[in-house]
What does this fold into?
Amino acid sequence: LEWCVSVPKVELHAHLNGSVRNSTLFELARVLGDKGVIVFSDVENVIMKDDRTLHEVFKLFDLIHILTTDHSTVTRITKEVIEDFAAENVVYLELRTTPKRNDSIGMSKRSYMDAVMEGLRAVSSVDVDYSPAGLKTNTFNGSTRKKMYVRFLLSIDRRESTEAAMETVKLALEMRDLGVVGIDLSGNPIVGNWSTFLPALKFAKEQGLYITLHCGEVPNQEEIKAMIDFLPHRIGHACCFDEENWRKLKSAKIPVEICLTSNIRTETISSIDIHHFVDLYKEKHPLVLCTDDSGVFSTSLSREYNLASSSFGLGKTEMFQLAEIAINFIFADDGVKTDLRATFEEAVKKLT
Ligand code: 5GP
It folds into this structure.
């Protein structure tokens, strides 16, 4: 595990509210418990549970959102999550989150995202570049501290309407200069219809935003086919594909964000030995190891690398290459890619 920690890594599939530390959730739950808003022991039982079906995971997210969704807490969790990834030697992080509106506390999707940005600016343990213009102004100039790139994806929740999805896309366009690079479609896969989100996703793509979709978490082959035909820039999971869609995915060469622990914990894949990582890896299909929800699934990116290495018999050279190749699939510009390649080149001498 130590070696996996020391390898520079690229994280492309991490949900903000799924990556919150358990200790922070407990602290927040205790405060709301004391105020009588929630029953602390109920929260404790849900947070401590280890195995959750995919359905239960979404119930847990509703609970997490009660604990975390006010401006100052959003700022706090963003700061902590970025610092946790930095501690793992993640050198490039694409963090995704669903902008939330809550009129009762004066929260708009924009003010939610402003709170996220404030958390990013509050990061103190590491030098962060978050603006696409950052490289030109040389954020890292002369600094000897650890450095990390952070970019954001705004998620559309499958519970949302076409209008709400469109609002998220417009917000992403507004926030491009602040490091928002794309749109994700996530949320409970048995809720909502592809046709509801398609207009907003199409618009986003036309405007030059990058798109990643949660695809194939449940065996809805018709939706999977429509999603692949849309040609997103990446997809997450790809667990329940039939043969025809599997063939389509491979010929379209769409990079896949692989979340091993998440798939096993939610029982989307019954056992690691039959995980589709093996097939994709053997065929050199573009893929990247990711955490999904490091808090909810008690994992980290190093643990995911360690799990892949031990489960699939990959050595240090293969694991290092797997980490490095992920640079090809990031949604940031070529300047960032060049800089990341230099970071890996520097590290390869020490680590393999
Ligand atoms: P947030 O967007 O609130 O920062 O992060 C939590 C949200 O991410 C959840 O409410 C859910 O919409 C989405 N999410 C987290 N993990 C998963 C997952 O494994 N599958 C899907 N489809 N959505 C997820």
In short: The radius of gyration is 19 Å.
